[in-house]
Amino acid sequence: MFTPDPLNTLVIAKHEFELGHSRFKLNTNYRLSYDEDMKGCLVFGEWMTLEDMKKHFTLYIPVLQERLKALGLIVDGKPISKKAFIERAMVHTYGSGKRRLHIFTIGEYKENCFAFYPMQGTKPEEFKQAYEQYVRLVAGDYEAIDDGDIVWGNMGIPLAYGNIRRDEAQYIVK
């Protein structure tokens, strides 16, 4: 079972701003690492106080988990069954032969949609991987989000690999 690392996570900017040598953009995930005394943190290589972090960023995994709940993909704090997940997933296939790509989406494309990008394999292997990615996200694992293997969107179907369109500003949890 995955145990979230309390010292490292993902955040998303509440607005665009500059700090130090970095420009932070809306709709972009950033890695956050707390310092040992938990009085500050590094985001995208820029040190800031926890107050500044909370002013500029939102912890991203809880936001995604709320979106999963809204879709009925988290029930009583737990993931739905693999069977229920597979029944709800829509498969988009790009390419052919050995170079095909399956993208599994769940949700309303223009409101709250998740795309899962498993490694290429047989369809059953890809469904299994997509489900495992989902279960880990429910548990608080941010690796698949950080790697772009799970992407959230609210602006239409995936146009290409990793390119599900999103506008976090209109759906961010305040």
Q: Could you explain how this protein is built, in words?
A:
With 174 residues, this protein is an alpha+beta fold. It has two domains: 54 residues, SH3 type barrels (Roll), CATH 2.30.30; 108 residues, no CATH class. Helices cover 26% and strands 32% of the residues. The strands form four sheets. It has a five-stranded antiparallel β-sheet. Strands 10-11-12-13 form a four-stranded antiparallel β-sheet. Strand 4 and strand 5 form a beta hairpin. The longest helix has 16 residues. It is elongated and about 45 Å long. It starts with 7 loop residues before the first strand and ends in a 21-residue tail after the last strand.
Give short descriptive properties of this protein:
single chain; 174 residues; alpha+beta; SH3 type barrels; 2 domains; 5-stranded antiparallel beta sheet; 4-stranded antiparallel beta sheet; 5 helices; 26% helix
Distance between the termini: 30 Å
Spatial strand arrangement across the major sheet:
6-5-4-1-7
Instruction: Calculate the mean pLDDT score and round it.
Output: 83
Poorly predicted tracts of residues: none
Structural class: alpha+beta
**Cα-based radius of gyration, to the nearest Å:** 17 Å
Specify the overall morphology: elongated
Number of strands: 13
Alpha plus pi helix count: 5
Order of helices and strands: EEEEEEHEHEEHEEEHHE
Task: Tell me the domain tally.
Answer: 2
Strand content: 25-35%
Portion in helices: 25-40%
Task: Report the sheet with the most strands, covering strand number, pairing sense and barrel closure.
Answer: 5 strands, antiparallel
